[in-house]
Amino acid sequence: MCCSPASLCPPGPTTTPPLRRPPRARCVEGRGAASEYHSAATTRSLCSTPFPHRSPVLRPRRRIPASPSLLDDNHFELVHILIKMAVSLKSSGSFCSTPPQWLHSTRDRILYGYSHSNAKECTCKKTKRPAPLCVKATSTKVELDFNDPSWKQKFQEDWDKRFNLPRITDIYDLKPRPTTFSLKKNRSPAGDENGTPMDKWNGYVNSDDRALLKVIKYSSPKSAGAECIDPDCSWVEQRVHRAGPRKEIYYEPEEVKAAIVTCGGLCPGLNDVIRQIVFTLETYGVKNIVGIPFGYRGFFEKGLKEMPLSRHLVENINLAGGSFLGVSRGGAKTSEIVDSIQARRIDMLFVLGGNGTHAGANAIHEECRKRKLKVSVVAVPKTIDNDILLMDKTFGFDTAVEEAQRAINSAYIEARSAYHGIGLVKLMGRSSGFIAMHASLSSGQVDVCLIPEVPFTLDGEYGVLRHLEHLLKTKGFCVVCVAEAAGQELLQKSGATDASGNVILSDIGVHMQQKIKMHFKDIGVPADVKYIDPTYMVRACRANASDAILCTVLGQNAVHGAFAGFSGITSCICNTHYVYLPITEVITVPKRVNPNSRMWHRCLTSTGQPDFH
Ligand SMILES: Nc1ncnc2c1ncn2[C@@H]1O[C@H](COP(=O)(O)OP(=O)(O)OP(=O)(O)O)[C@@H](O)[C@H]1O
Ligand SMILES: O=P(O)(O)OC[C@H]1O[C@](O)(CO)[C@@H](O)[C@@H]1O
Ligand SMILES: [Mg+2]
């Protein structure tokens, strides 16, 4: 029976006064640059007024390094890389040596994380204060000195270079032809007063159209989730290429052979994208469309035959989940794949997949260039994990969240109906906690959300288990949502990898289930633990409405991108606009949840959970 929490469900056990822990003082001073993360007022109050334990209100987080405040979820991971690079540089003796090491933002010693993948050591002045870690702002192509009045212009020039879309005309001298894509092509054009036909269809995107990647002007790097290029948080426009059909194209549709391949794990919406690619190709006039079975493997595994595709064949595939073409991991040998592309005379390759697939697509694109093949390789970002840089979301994510919150709801109902019920749900997300965070937010039924980006302890005074005790005493039941990649440092690593080389994670869900059961047994408190691991259920389903729309647009734009002559690009949504990005810009690291983002703070406000360390 399904029941709404307040009305139909049996009441939970009577609440008892909250379990109180002795208040502890939290002083963040004396930690180098980390202390600057808090305002002076916050720091004072943190040092002088210990807040009561288990307060449901959002408390200032402890020991968060300063620089993540400069970054959003897209770029948070870059800071980890910079920290690692900087720390290793330091240990190799190239860095100024005074500990402690925190990434820090000041006028003359700057780390800013946005869009910069190379960290270089800068000069450290001798100061009395412990020196912060010094990382000079660099980008992949240009070093910026913010004292130079023209730094913005340099930044923008560098940006435009990086986000310039690779195209087949970079290696081929080709003349475009007028597009065959017009939604008016089957109608008789209306004439003006002289009877001259007027083509009023204005559905083409100009190649100079750009969308802004970011729209917020942050007044300070300390603003929640701030993304700043320089320490003053100046406004700099970061523009990317708008996606859509162009008036001129670089292929003769009748001569084109187009192929579609789906790689990696399953994801809701794969079929919707396949279907739209086929529809759009046919609208251009392409007749030779094939599907490559079972991911990149289909290019070289004997016995796997390409599948001819047509509108008729794919008409209804979106009604089911999975991939009509099949998926696989591993086995990507770029040169063999390109041999196969060459042998099959493929002109356009549409690649649907996550970060690994994108890396593969880019390698294929590069190899085609090297061999001077006129092939457009266009990717469409697919992953329930939502862990690809720069884009608002990847297709499949919304649906996975929707399915995940069904599991949370079941855990809630089980926990709410049991005496001292504890519902525990583990959700997917190989390297990031987006599904867990969003499903916790959307369900509104989670008391504790644990993600890999935010470390936690299970045992001890400030551990999760003590908080569960508190919840049982105060609420009578509780629900915990843990991301599969969370708390890996608490578990033994197997060191195993899957066929694509992805690390196989240890099972935090089972570990927590056992720890919770043992803990309550040890302290002699009854606890009824119900563990739900919905695993493949969150991704083996058909796309929901919002993903279906996203897939439709991304699939269509992928085809427009190929006909416009682009290659090595991905078709995605940024800042609510549909755009093309060079693949190289989205695959450097997985996108992760920024613990200083408003979204994570909202999640904490919703769950009411404290710090667990
Ligand atoms: N760096 C790389 N270069 C070339 N090919 C790669 C690379 N990384 C992964 N691949 C190939 O891409 C395909 C998919 O990779 P992977 O299994 O990691 O899934 P994914 O695309 O990241 O999607 P998911 O989100 O499901 O993990 C595999 O066939 C793999 O061999
Ligand atoms: O299909 P497999 O190999 O079990 O992969 C599971 C992984 O794939 C994903 O669903 C997508 O990357 C992850 O959330 C999960 O860790
Ligand atoms: Mg991946």
From TrEMBL:
<dbReference type="Pfam" id="PF00365">
    <property type="entry name" value="PFK"/>
</dbReference>
<feature type="domain" description="Phosphofructokinase">
    <location>
        <begin position="258"/>
        <end position="560"/>
    </location>
</feature>
<comment type="function">
    <text>Catalyzes the phosphorylation of D-fructose 6-phosphate to fructose 1,6-bisphosphate by ATP, the first committing step of glycolysis.</text>
</comment>
<comment type="similarity">
    <text>Belongs to the phosphofructokinase type A (PFKA) family. PPi-dependent PFK group II subfamily. Atypical ATP-dependent clade 'X' sub-subfamily.</text>
</comment>
<keyword id="KW-0418">Kinase</keyword>
<dbReference type="InterPro" id="IPR022953">
    <property type="entry name" value="ATP_PFK"/>
</dbReference>
<keyword id="KW-0479">Metal-binding</keyword>
<feature type="binding site">
    <location>
        <position position="355"/>
    </location>
    <ligand>
        <name>Mg(2+)</name>
    </ligand>
</feature>
<feature type="binding site">
    <location>
        <begin position="536"/>
        <end position="539"/>
    </location>
    <ligand>
        <name>substrate</name>
    </ligand>
</feature>
<feature type="site" description="Important for substrate specificity; cannot use PPi as phosphoryl donor">
    <location>
        <position position="356"/>
    </location>
</feature>
<dbReference type="GO" id="GO:0006002">
    <property type="term" value="P:fructose 6-phosphate metabolic process"/>
</dbReference>
<feature type="binding site">
    <location>
        <begin position="428"/>
        <end position="430"/>
    </location>
    <ligand>
        <name>substrate</name>
    </ligand>
</feature>
<feature type="binding site">
    <location>
        <position position="484"/>
    </location>
    <ligand>
        <name>substrate</name>
    </ligand>
</feature>
<keyword id="KW-0067">ATP-binding</keyword>
<dbReference type="GO" id="GO:0046872">
    <property type="term" value="F:metal ion binding"/>
</dbReference>
<dbReference type="InterPro" id="IPR000023">
    <property type="entry name" value="Phosphofructokinase_dom"/>
</dbReference>
<feature type="active site" description="Proton acceptor">
    <location>
        <position position="385"/>
    </location>
</feature>
<feature type="binding site">
    <location>
        <position position="265"/>
    </location>
    <ligand>
        <name>ATP</name>
    </ligand>
</feature>
<dbReference type="InterPro" id="IPR012004">
    <property type="entry name" value="PyroP-dep_PFK_TP0108"/>
</dbReference>
<comment type="subunit">
    <text>Homotetramer.</text>
</comment>
<keyword id="KW-0324">Glycolysis</keyword>
<feature type="binding site">
    <location>
        <begin position="329"/>
        <end position="330"/>
    </location>
    <ligand>
        <name>ATP</name>
    </ligand>
</feature>
<keyword id="KW-0963">Cytoplasm</keyword>
<comment type="pathway">
    <text>Carbohydrate degradation; glycolysis; D-glyceraldehyde 3-phosphate and glycerone phosphate from D-glucose: step 3/4.</text>
</comment>
<keyword id="KW-0808">Transferase</keyword>
<keyword id="KW-0547">Nucleotide-binding</keyword>
<keyword id="KW-0460">Magnesium</keyword>
<dbReference type="InterPro" id="IPR035966">
    <property type="entry name" value="PKF_sf"/>
</dbReference>
<feature type="binding site">
    <location>
        <begin position="354"/>
        <end position="357"/>
    </location>
    <ligand>
        <name>ATP</name>
    </ligand>
</feature>
<keyword id="KW-0021">Allosteric enzyme</keyword>
<feature type="binding site">
    <location>
        <begin position="383"/>
        <end position="385"/>
    </location>
    <ligand>
        <name>substrate</name>
    </ligand>
</feature>
<dbReference type="GO" id="GO:0003872">
    <property type="term" value="F:6-phosphofructokinase activity"/>
</dbReference>
<protein>
    <recommendedName>
        <fullName>ATP-dependent 6-phosphofructokinase</fullName>
        <ecNumber>2.7.1.11</ecNumber>
    </recommendedName>
</protein>
<dbReference type="InterPro" id="IPR050929">
    <property type="entry name" value="PFKA"/>
</dbReference>
<dbReference type="GO" id="GO:0005524">
    <property type="term" value="F:ATP binding"/>
</dbReference>
<dbReference type="GO" id="GO:0005737">
    <property type="term" value="C:cytoplasm"/>
</dbReference>
